Amino acid sequence: MHPELIQHINHSLDCQLPETDSMEKLKSLLTNHINELINHQFELLIQHLYRIDVSEEKIKTLLANNNGENAAGIIATLIIERQLQKINTRRHTKRRDDIPDDEQW
Question: Taking a C-beta distance cutoff of 8 angstroms, is the pair 12, 87 a contact?
């Protein structure tokens, strides 16, 4: 499990999800948090999704194609995927920064 992932999610959603050792538990905790936002602070959820850069089109498509499934679970999965992409991009960029200037392209 990526403790860095939980830190990014907590920071991006301004929440305090506890550290967990399984992706399934993280998704469950995040799904519960997303459900709370859907029911009580929908505009805030939209702002978070925009800031995290979760694709609006992807959300709409998945919700339409999975009619009857828990929308919060779908959104939680997309948030986790996007945060993992960002972490991997930062790691890759950091590795490039470690290359001496004269050896970079």
Answer: no
